[in-house]
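Fold this sequence, please.
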Amino acid sequence: MSSKSPFIDSLNQREPGSFKELFRRHYSNLLNYSLHFLPCQSDGEDVIQDVVVELWQGNASFQHEAQLLGYLFKGVRNRSLSALRRRRRFIGYGPIAQEQIAQEGSENFWDLNSELLEMFDQSLGQLPIECRKIFSHLLNGLSAVDIASKLNRAPSTVRSQKRRGISIMREFVREQELCKEIIDPLL
């Protein structure tokens, strides 16, 4: 007879009900932990989904729930930090903008900010239709799961399109003249 709990046994067997139970038991704690690293709840939700999908598809097995929790929290921490690094590379023009304010005064900063926002809007226009739809929903605060449900797509497809869109937008921004002066050093 096994000394493992029925929950751990069913999780090790990759029974779908065990993953529902995993979410019921640990989702809110994992999300709160992810939000210690990430500023956006939808990013935290994506991280947790990625960790659980990796668990589902992998071959890790556990002897007890504490071991499972260590795996989950370590995965959430690592993926959250990776997501944060990607976010900072994509959005992180803060120090340059602060330097601009100090050197030239706040009115020039607003000019810079409006140019960056215009560049962002233009880069959105460069996206394929499917990516643009997804980004529209992301900008309205929907999570990948909500978007997937609304567009009748898999969450992994939404995340893939999100990554593709970021890559396209990043390339567009790099090609712009303003980027060469201000943003390139950060990318």
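The chain has a mean pLDDT of 76. The first helix runs from residue 6 to 12.
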